Amino acid sequence: MDKNEFRKRGHELVDWMADYLESKESYPVTPDVEPGDIYAKLPDNAPEEGEEFDRIFADFQRIIMPGMTHWQNPAFFGYFPANNSEPSILAEMLMSTLGAQCMSWITSPAAAELEEKVCDWLREAKGINSNWKGCIHDTASTATLSAILAAREKHSGFQINKSGFTGKEKFRVYSSSHVHSSIDKAVKISGIGEENLVRVDVDENFSMIPEALERAIRHDLAQGLTPLMVISALGTTSSTAVDPIGEITRVCRDYQVWHHIDAAFAGTALLLPEYQTLIHGHDEADSYVFNPHKWMMTNFDCTVMFLKEPEYLVKTFSLTPEYLKTDLDEKVNNYRDWGIPLGRRFRALKLWFVLRSYGLEGLRKKLRHHLHLTKKAESWIRADSRLEILAPVNFNTICFRYVHHDLSTEKLNEINESWMSTANATHKLFFSHTKLNDKYVIRWVIGQTDVEEKHIEAAWVLLKEQLHKTINS
Amino acid sequence: MDKNEFRKRGHELVDWMADYLESKESYPVTPDVEPGDIYAKLPDNAPEEGEEFDRIFADFQRIIMPGMTHWQNPAFFGYFPANNSEPSILAEMLMSTLGAQCMSWITSPAAAELEEKVCDWLREAKGINSNWKGCIHDTASTATLSAILAAREKHSGFQINKSGFTGKEKFRVYSSSHVHSSIDKAVKISGIGEENLVRVDVDENFSMIPEALERAIRHDLAQGLTPLMVISALGTTSSTAVDPIGEITRVCRDYQVWHHIDAAFAGTALLLPEYQTLIHGHDEADSYVFNPHKWMMTNFDCTVMFLKEPEYLVKTFSLTPEYLKTDLDEKVNNYRDWGIPLGRRFRALKLWFVLRSYGLEGLRKKLRHHLHLTKKAESWIRADSRLEILAPVNFNTICFRYVHHDLSTEKLNEINESWMSTANATHKLFFSHTKLNDKYVIRWVIGQTDVEEKHIEAAWVLLKEQLHKTINS
């Protein structure tokens, strides 16, 4: 494709993209396809000769689009959102054109220094201790794994990096019983083992009980095990429960355990000063992660981690082979040493575009709007005597179910699962579920960039219709 | 930013992007900035109120652009390229607009099935065993770490995942002494320890000596250590040396050791049938990784891994918490279970656009052109009696240096370092270096998408001018 054609096709795509963004709510949220449908429509081999862009783009519209889940549809209420925004998309266009690989300062000084600056901006705006330093990762999975590794190496004096596990260390990692799967994955990867992830009891709000944490630590110490790290949640994945950050920090300090705060989804709420009490007392914690790519109108992928002592992270990962050495290595941040992959995209650019285009007030307005819509939906559910809400609505996630005192939990689970499935099968919206105390609940997450009252009203009408059908079937 | 403004700004950016791509060779390859220059130009806090896009974009041009290293400049000859292309950029525009998070089949069926298909296409086109299956990662660092973890878990019967290292396992990983730093990093992360990365001797071409590998394995077995994995290189980072894949596969088979083939950069050459002899005998190896984002005109990030038995990888990573369960989990590929991060971008789309837009013949033509230019540059260097080439030019990387029989290696290293530095200081091109047998060499990598004869001619003139200055100073 020559440069002239690129210009022409680029303009065509911008119009398509703008049309898509204008009409994204008209797309089915989930596609009506069966496993293998798309695969079967694609030829078995790559073409030998290049094809015209018209043909490729027609196939994109004919084959790919009908198989997409439309995460940006305002009626996507599942999981956590991965919301995007116009300024973020514009930044991605520039990033992909520059094609800079930002592993080292020298490989793009502006990217390294903008990364440092936008992390500073976010740290200040969120009320994180101003001595902490930030960096960008792809996902919270990777960032949390990095934190575990830094804790592991700090504790072992970098001996596991050097010689591997000796078996003398019996590390224990603590999290609430509502821990995210990425933490299970990280304790496996790091060689600690899933059995050494201690699931601390939660209270009736699904928040970790600090006394139970302390008991677990003391119990392990008495057994000769080594408490390494506590991962607290500022917003669990199931129900957005908030662990008591300040109290956990004190426990961690007393036992010299690394305290990592996983605020992957809900951390964006700290842009609202009224939510910053949630991290009071975090100053003596060690690390904190949140995903602008979830609720901060920044394209996936973009995770930001803050650390009290980044030197442990850097020492865990840094190794400078001859072919990467430069005479500036002592003076600059080579962010390749702050995480797992060597190569890095220029993700700071989209954070910069988003932060400047919205401004902090603009972001706060969006968040407050989502929280306002959530209060509204919550009030509808609470007013319906057939339904119950099973967890505090701390942010913009409502965990609810149909309930009936004559029916067993098992039967209720079946009904609620069926209810959600039939609602999702309309393809007009999408919910996902979880279980709280073995009870199947539907999660309603209201955080899409352009979600408005009409979308939640339509969802509520549809939910009630489907419930009627489900309980009368 | 409203939708109308997005349309307007999108068109403006496409013109800027097309202009940039047309004029990318006119930008300084590296920026003339000092550490801290860019950081100091950015305000200390995020703006409270949103700013006009004109102002943001003006700052992008004023502050960011002068601080960029222009990886897409055809005179970027350093490291390995991260070349991109017009079809790939167009795909990135669509990906960022759809904003799909492709962790599971259900979260975007088309993305999962297109991923499976384009990996099949690449497997066939590269001559990889047709029973192997592929998946996409962000980088080779992460893919290789994944392979090490799969080997670890296969060997331990998934017991390290479960209970952590007991210290009974003393795993050993083997690679040539020219191993890439990502492998050091991966053995650290996985808890094996850098000391257990055995650097096997290489021959005069910097290729691993299979007999030395076998000796190392037998030696370790005699010591009660456990050979876990061999990582062979199809193109080392320093000099693009090629390890004897078939012979190493036989050694690995004899000792039941996982054989991972790291073809991160040079693997793209396998699209040329005449290079496929390099992987003859790979059928009984276990995994293979290459980076379309290096030399296959596909935007960073995009790594493809192939596996003989992907079930070990999947079993290493899979865990399905309640909130991710679907009733299709047994029937589909949930690629979240094929790697480390939970969240995943829709990277298959850009591979599809690139493969279809170029066609395999179009890609081969590009590669052959780069290889032809490399032969040309190699011939110029060989004809200059002051210079020597210190490694076979297997692909499109030339490792050369100034040499003089009166001077010590140390002195020559100084001269060559100075030569490269002064050449790079013109900002008209960019080379990086390595050391081969302690000799400082300049690496000339000719793989930018639009590199032409005029660019290597200009580089050669500049190199000779700077050499003249360096040796006469």
UniProtKB/TrEMBL annotation, chains A, B:
Database matches in PROSITE patterns: DDC_GAD_HDC_YDC (PS00392)
Cofactor: pyridoxal 5'-phosphate
The UniProt record lists the keyword Glycoprotein: no
Record-linked InterPro entries: Aromatic_deC (IPR010977), PyrdxlP-dep_de-COase (IPR002129), PyrdxlP-dep_Trfase (IPR015424), PyrdxlP-dep_Trfase_major (IPR015421), PyrdxlP-dep_Trfase_small (IPR015422), Pyridoxal-P_BS (IPR021115)
Annotated keywords: Decarboxylase, Lyase, Pyridoxal phosphate
Family (UniProt): Belongs to the group II decarboxylase family.
Entry protein name: Pyridoxal-dependent decarboxylase
Organism of this sequence: Algoriphagus sediminis
